[in-house]
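Example 4.3 (complexes with small molecules)
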Amino acid sequence: MNIVNLKINNNLISTINIYNSHNSNQYSDIISSYSSVFIFTQKSCSMDLDFSNNNNNFIKTFILKDRESCKSIDQLREIFDFLILNKCNKDSLIIGFGGGTVLDTVGFVASVYMRGISHVFFPTTLLSMVDAAIGGKTAINYNNIRNLIGSINHPKHIIIILDYLKSLPKEELLNGFAEIIKYALILDENLFNELEENIQDLYPQLDINKLEHIIIQCIKHKVHVVSKDEYDYGLRRILNFGHTVGHAIESCSNYNISHGLAVFYGMKVATHISLELNKIDKDSYNRIISLIDYFNFPK
Ligand code: GLY
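Answer. The structure with glycine bound is encoded below.
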């Protein structure tokens, strides 16, 4: 097991535990201190948390709408009705089990229901492990505007189980690798070298030991950036590298082009601009483009 802590001004905000495989002992202590537990997930996430040891808790599961549809006012209304019906209160815990859309929704619910109740994340996608689960950004979409309504609200614990990566479809893995390459380009030349050297073992091989090392480095970068600029007024904006063009591509395609693919394109555009402006040399340009192109998406 590996642990990374997110601290802000020396206060412990979130603990991030990284395990290879699932075992109910990883969370039974956390759960036992709450009177009731509400798990939010999506059908596609195959939620397999085991609460059979936690006899004292009242545990209920809510299946959210698929993909982005869960980040809506209509879905929020259903969630609040469910929580009220089941007497969710300040002694309850909310769990988000899934990828970014689940975690965005659950984090938002946890920040506004009864003015805030505790929550824990189990990110199940590569993207959510290295990015979406960490740093407290929550959001729902409104009037077709993505992430318009949200908050910064950190989960107490983030529990990462690497085995979940093995069942992800290719497109979902690409979403994660786009963010991993982003960290390398904005913050860490050694990480870039490591990706170049090991890329075939990482993808499509999914060598979990090598991937774990990469994931932990990305998490540490995210934790560092968030600890310096929790509310996104300065340094945190560096995490948007490749996303300006990426978001435009996603939006113009009516979100038929995945986030990862759009960010790959966005990073290529940013790399071209950097070369044009003499911010990088031709050799760096070639290395960046060839690492991105390794993922072999339509050019
Ligand atoms: N995903 C970018 C951020 O958390 O700021």
